[in-house]
Design a protein that fits this description.
With 153 residues, the chain is an alpha+beta fold. It has one domain: Aminopeptidase. The chain contains 4 helices and 5 strands; from the N terminus they run E-H-H-E-E-E-H-E-H. A 5-stranded mixed sheet has the order 1-2-3-4-5, with helices on both faces. Strand 3 and strand 4 form a beta hairpin. Helix 1 packs across helix 2. The longest helix has 15 residues. It is globular, with a radius of gyration of 15 Å.
């Protein structure tokens, strides 16, 4: 599929294309379906230029995956970095190279915008994704543990 795959940066014009994919991504991580929330979240990110979303389309023009990146900084390296926070491929398009193509496009984007590094996290049980990351040169961090602190909004 990758030879007929088209990847482009999403704009507000693609909001109704991205939102269902983002909702499916959230469901993959055990969140209840909620298309209005997904749509609102993506609309805010795009309107505020807070993220970069790359959309993958198959040969028929159907959106089959996306990734979302957030710019950040590494204080230790004193350099800008990018966090690849979301990566999702529709079940019908898995194992066709869509995820690989999105990761390569994300890397190209990051390099062309001067980011020093890309970071991502994934579920410890998501071994399929981990194998893909390793095959593309991503290195697992065995030095630092990640922590989260839930806050009341």
């Amino acid at each position: 599929m990758t030879n007929t795959l088209r990847i482009e940066r999403a704009t507000l014009a693609q909001l109704d294309t991205v939102a269902p994919l983002f909702d499916a991504y959230r469901q993959f991580y055990e969140q209840a379906p909620n298309l209005p929330t997904a749509r609102s979240f993506i609309a805010d990110r795009l309107q505020r230029n807070e993220s970069t979303i790359l959309l993958a389309y198959d040969a028929q023009g159907l959106a089959v995956g996306f990734c979302q990146m957030y710019a950040s900084f590494c204080s230790v390296e004193a350099a800008p970095i990018v966090v690849l926070y979301d990566l999702f491929v529709s079940p019908v398009a898995r194992k066709t190279g869509v995820g690989r193509a999105l990761l390569l496009a994300a890397r190209t984007h990051a390099e062309s915008h001067g980011f020093a590094r890309m970071d991502l996290t994934t579920a410890k049980t998501n071994t399929t994704a981990q194998a893909l990351y390793r095959s593309l040169g991503w290195v697992k961090d065995d030095v630092f543990d990640a922590y989260n602190l839930p806050l009341k909004a």
